[in-house]
Specification:
The chain is mainly β and 551 residues long. Helix content is 7%, strand content 52%.
Length: 551
């Protein structure tokens, strides 16, 4: 078996050597057969058969190793262009390249008309070829190349950037406010999306030779809101180019001491504060005769008792600006315009000017400053808490001792200090707020005080207070007599008070006098049900005339 393997090995070597000889210099055909021996194995081939065998092997190798459809591709190309002067532009071009073959590759990247300043990496090979500088490399792989170059201006002042075909291609510009880009689609900010097939991108100066200066008119409408120690302003402005060429810039004058927060609007490229209280507006596109802006700014809030001087954002010529001024102040402020100024009904203005309240709205035919006098109106303090209901029950025993239990529902949202005064000679027994026991505070005048918690976060903005106290009356007379009894006094307004009084079972009420009335509920002989509504800072009291039953 080993000898047979050796014979095949010898045969393979012989065939390889023969193929090499044939490939190098094909011999003249011979009629004699070629003999190859190895030990006991022997192979005899004619020249024609050997030649056919070699051709078959070469064809099989060529079919097995297919060539890629393209040798290389540019995955991305990014160009950063800066206008250094009217005659020169600087470009930084970055390429991401993939090569697919082991052969040599020559890939055009930039025009050979551009002076090259720097190449990264430094060992990158660029060679002139058919009007281009081509990237030269051998072998498959990934390549990142950055080329810094210069583009001289054309006689008309424009610049031509020749872009290579790439899967993704982008141009970023700087200092090109006075130039327009042709052959590319506008992206975000100063970015442009380039065609994937490459081609020429033209950066041309905007021509103003025959353009007339724009004459703007403005409609300026401002909403001022007194808030957080400032006058916060929202100005919505419409600019119209009434004469000349619709330029890409305009100037606005803001009210004195204005602190600009933001300036926004369609096609607005940038805004800058050129001088005190003046801003310059620049737009991207040329030839638009109608511009819209929204400016947010703030002014110091004047004192309510001094004269308020207000105006609206305007053009340099106040006669070219008209508009409206809306002012929303707290309800206790009253502002009155000085002089003859037209006041507009809120129903006649845009909804956004009355979205923050009922404003004072003034019409301004021209953007002149207006003055308003202000004063603070008197305010009546409303109740911070009321007692929705107070339910009391009093039990009286023959020796004149009483026990009174009460449940009060007090409506409030903010924390509240509630005070009440017990009837003379009474003593507190228990006290609860929302089912939690608490101890009242004794004030200097003898009244009691409870601290009710905040109810801002509760759907039911009320506290439930339960109290009980005892008092000592005169001893019940065996036959008949009179009892004088009272409830606690509180300064908080009470919507309704219900009071149930139980006499000893052997007695009944014969008459009643006081500041309560019968509630209308059915009374038995010894239980009295009374009611008192809509009272404040008034103690409920009653005189009960009683007698022994069956007397």
């Amino acid at each position: 078996m080993n000898k047979q393997i050796a014979s095949f090995f010898t045969l393979a070597v012989s065939l390889s050597l023969t193929a090499s000889l044939v490939s190098a210099a094909p011999p003249e055909p011979k009629s004699e057969p070629i003999h190859t021996t190895s030990d006991k194995a022997e192979l005899t081939l004619s020249y024609d058969n050997l030649r056919q065998l070699i051709d078959d092997l070469q064809t099989k190798e060529a079919v097995t190793k297919q060539k890629p459809p393209v040798k290389a591709t540019v995955r991305s190309a990014e160009y950063q262009l800066e206008i250094a002067s009217k005659k020169l532009a600087k470009v930084s071009a970055t390429f991401a390249i993939t090569t697919f073959t082991d052969d040599w590759v020559s890939l055009p990247l930039i025009s050979d008309q551009y002076p090259v300043q720097q190449i990264e990496p430094a060992n990158t090979v660029l060679t002139p070829e058919a009007g281009h500088l081509s990237f030269l490399t051998q072998g498959a792989g990934e390549h990142a190349i950055k080329i810094s170059l210069l583009i001289p201006a054309e006689p008309d002042g424009s610049f031509n950037l020749q872009c290579v075909a790439a899967t993704s291609s982008k141009l970023t510009t700087n200092h090109t406010v006075d130039y327009e880009i042709q052959g590319a689609a506008r992206g975000d900010s100063n970015d442009y999306i380039l065609p994937s097939i490459g081609g020429s991108i033209r950066i041309s100066p905007i021509r103003h030779a025959n353009a007339k200066a724009s004459t703007w008119s403005a409609d300026s409408r401002v909403l001022y809101i007194a808030k957080d120690s400032e006058l916060q302003a929202e100005a919505r402005i419409v600019l119209n180019a009434t004469e000349g060429d619709a330029a890409t810039s305009a100037n606005l004058v803001l009210p004195k001491d204005a602190r600009v927060l933001s300036v926004t609007g369609p096609d607005l490229e940038r805004w800058t504060e050129t001088a005190q209280q003046q801003i310059q507006l620049n737009w991207n596109s040329h030839g638009i005769s109608r511009r819209r802006l929204t400016i947010l700014y703030a002014l110091p809030l004047p004192d309510v008792d001094e004269t308020w001087t207000l105006t609206i954002p305007r053009l340099d010529d106040p006669q070219k600006t008209q508009g409206q001024l809306a002012l929303v102040t707290p309800a206790e402020f009253q502002l009155t315009p000085m002089g003859e100024i037209a006041i507009i009904e809120p129903s006649m203005v845009a909804d956004w000017m009355k979205s923050q309240g009922m404003p004072l709205i003034l019409k301004l035919p021209h953007a002149t400053a207006i003055q308003l006098t202000g004063k603070r109106l008197a305010q009546i303090q409303t109740a911070t808490a009321t007692i929705e209901s107070a339910v009391f029950k009093t039990q009286i025993v023959p020796d004149g001792s009483t026990l009174t239990e009460g449940t009060l529902t007090i409506s409030h949202r903010d924390p509240k200090l509630w005070t009440f005064t017990l009837p003379e000679g009474s003593e507190i027994l228990t006290c609860q707020i929302d089912e939690s026991s608490t101890n009242p505070i004794v004030l200097s005048d003898g009244s009691l005080q409870l601290s009710l918690p905040s109810k801002q976060a509760d759907s039911q903005a009320s506290s439930t207070v339960k109290i009980s106290f005892t008092s000592k009356l005169e001893k019940i007379d065996p036959l008949s007599g009179k009892l004088s009894i009272a409830l606690p006094l509180t300064p908080v307004f009470i919507h309704e008070m219900l009071w149930s009084i139980d006499l000893p079972s052997a007695y009944e009420a014969s008459a009643l006098d006081g500041n309560l009335t019968f509630s209308g509920e059915e009374n038995d002989s010894h239980s009295i049900k009374l009611v008192k509504r809509l009272c404040r800072n008034q103690a409920a009291h009653v005189d009960i005339f009683y007698r022994k039953k069956n007397q």
